[in-house]
Design a protein that fits this description.
alpha+beta; seven-stranded antiparallel sheet; six-stranded antiparallel sheet; 36% helix; MGH1-like glycoside hydrolase domain-containing protein
Length: 551
């Protein structure tokens, strides 16, 4: 069976898959993708067809903007590159496939920094825009991960570091009017929460289209915003890492001190001990008690330890009364009477959003919650195989496509999920993850795929990977490298040297790892990590599993 799906993978032509692309810049982008060696094949379902629809549609979201260098566009009718998404998390994911496009997209924001330090919230063909801040994923984290993954370019890192350091000063000067140490939201679009009840009766945009001004007549804003404050906390942590890389130890220590101050302000002003939730605090010094995806945004900024994250999973993220819909994760808790499930328009009032789904994995991986992440990604992959377009939203009840089409976050969601679940994922820390999961036919019993195969070139060496119900096998340069049972993940370095095995299933997996001439018996539970030593596998992490709850 493995040979059949492997032969299919080797026979696939990306040039044929990309035949419909037509822009002059598409050939340049295709050449870079071909250099990555990334291909995907699947048998027994529609997953392969959906994957290459995403592959082709991605080209529609990439084009030159201000010079000859292609950059990533938001798509879906949103013109240009947006800080909250295209310029951060979208490009962070894209770095694994098209690093030059991601790099050019990051640099757009430094290029158009204002003299006072403000970064644009978007850049379009008509120029930059500054009327709100629209921050979600920390730019510094995305830049750092891109640079670590793609060979370390100190020149690029220094440009971005200096721009982000100046922006930190701007935020401290203009978004701390109440002196709390939190970052303040002046309007709905500061966090990109269109139509969210979080911002009912608050202006959509900043006063007089000036991100330094708040509506003086508002009875509610400025909010002390937990997601914006967490963003700056995480931003400062990564700026500290950049300063160390660039040989600025004193600056690194200062960033770490500032990060600690942001974290303290976040918990002091925005965390409700009774609900164990992060809320805005309005200008009347009251909590804005809307349980929203703000929680996930804070967690994705690396706030809290694993014990805290596990508590948030059980109370909220894996709770079917809160955010764990049939097609998760909703943007408002489902037990809130203001929850709006409709997905036919641009809304953060309840429906599941693909931007949330590409922001989600970082938090789960950061805390080693791999099995729980699968429960979120699996229904989304299934839904995407049934869609005829790539929307911004999807119905949390049915998984049907919602608002707009050719939206780069949903396109990247599928490309990212396939690599996380069934592929070969390069990591910023120098590891390669070979994941041996298979999609389960959970929607009406319809199979998504019965076997999969994936390839990727790393440092000039081609790796190939096949996954079936019987197990998974990796090849390096055409030669067998290792085999593991389904329901696990093999972790190697970039040279293919085996380091660990991770349990990716709710069930305990027992079997043999074949690595070189060795046959290594093992047993691994969900989320458990086994390290390979001279004596065999040794358990180094065994956090157990956080199970879904129903209220």
């Amino acid at each position: 069976m493995n040979e059949t799906v492997l032969e299919r993978l080797r026979g696939l032509s990306l040039e044929v898959q990309a035949e419909a692309t037509a822009k002059a810049s598409d050939r340049q982008v295709l050449e870079e993708w071909l250099e990555s060696g990334v291909k995907f094949a699947a048998l027994g379902g529609p997953l392969e067809e959906a994957y290459y629809r995403a592959f082709r549609k991605l080209f529609d979201c990439i084009a030159p903007m201000v010079d000859e260098k292609p950059v990533l566009f938001e798509g879906g009718g949103y013109s240009g590159c947006w800080m909250e998404s295209t310029g951060t998390i979208n490009s962070e994911l894209l770095s694994r496939f098209l690093p030059s496009v991601a790099r050019a997209s990051f640099l757009l924001f430094a290029r158009y920094q204002e003299a006072d330090g403000q970064l644009p919230y978007k850049v379009t063909a008509t120029g930059p825009a500054y009327r709100q801040i629209q921050m979600v994923t920390p730019l510094a984290r995305s830049v750092w991960n891109h640079d670590e993954l793609n060979g370390r370019d100190d020149g690029f890192l220094r440009i971005m570091y200096q721009a982000m350091a100046r922006y930190d000063e701007w935020l401290a000067a203009y978004r701390n009017t109440r002196g709390s140490g939190c970052v303040e939201a002046f309007c709905t679009f500061d966090t990109g929460h269109d139509l969210s009840p979080r911002f009912w009766h608050v202006p959509d945009t900043c006063h007089q289209d000036d991100a330094r001004q708040v509506d003086p007549g508002s009875p509610l804003v400025p909010f002390l915003a937990p997601d914006l404050t967490a963003n700056v906390y995480c931003q400062r942590l990564y700026l500290a890492e950049m300063a160390k890389r660039l040989g600025m130890e004193q600056e690194a220590a200062l960033w770490e001190k500032k990060a600690g101050e942001s974290l303290a302000a976040l918990y002091r002003w925005c965390f409700d001990e009774a609900d164990r939730f992060f809320y805005d605090r309005d200008c009347q010094d009251r909590f804005v008690r809307i349980q929203s995806d703000v929680l996930l945004r804070v967690l994705a900024c690396e706030v809290g330890d694993r014990e805290f994250f596990d508590e948030m999973l059980e109370r909220y993220l894996l709770n079917t009364r809160k955010f764990f819909a049939k097609y998760p994760l909703t943007s408002i808790a489902m037990d809130d009477p203001r929850f709006d499930p409709f997905s036919g328009y641009n809304s953060w009032g309840g429906t599941s959003n693909f931007l949330t789904l590409i922001r989600t994995p970082h938090a789960f991986k950061h805390h080693g919650r791999f099995v729980e992440l699968n429960w979120i990604l699996n229904p989304i992959v299934s839904a995407l195989t049934r869609m005829d377009r790539f929307p911004q939203t999807l119905s949390p009840w049915t998984g049907e496509a919602g608002f707009t089409e050719t939206y780069s976050p949903s396109i990247l969601c599928l490309l990212d999920a396939v690599e996380q679940l069934y592929g070969i994922m390069p990591r910023p820390d120098g590891e390669l993850w070979f994941s041996a999961c298979l999609p389960y036919p959970q929607d009406h019993g319809q199979a998504v795929a019965s076997e999969t195969a994936y390839s990727r070139r790393v440092d000039g060496m081609l790796y190939e990977w096949t996954v079936t119900a019987k197990g998974a096998t990796a090849w390096r340069g055409g030669e067998p490298l290792l085999s593991i049972p389904a329901g696990t993940r093999a972790v190697t370095d970039r040279q293919g040297r085996l380091k660990r095995v991770i349990g990716m299933s709710v069930q305990k997996v027992e079997g043999i790892v074949r690595y070189g001439a060795a046959e290594l018996p093992f047993a691994v539970e969900g989320n458990e990590q086994l390290e390979l030593t001279e004596e065999g596998f040794v358990s180094v992490e065994k956090p157990g599993i956080v199970f879904p709850v129903h209220g």
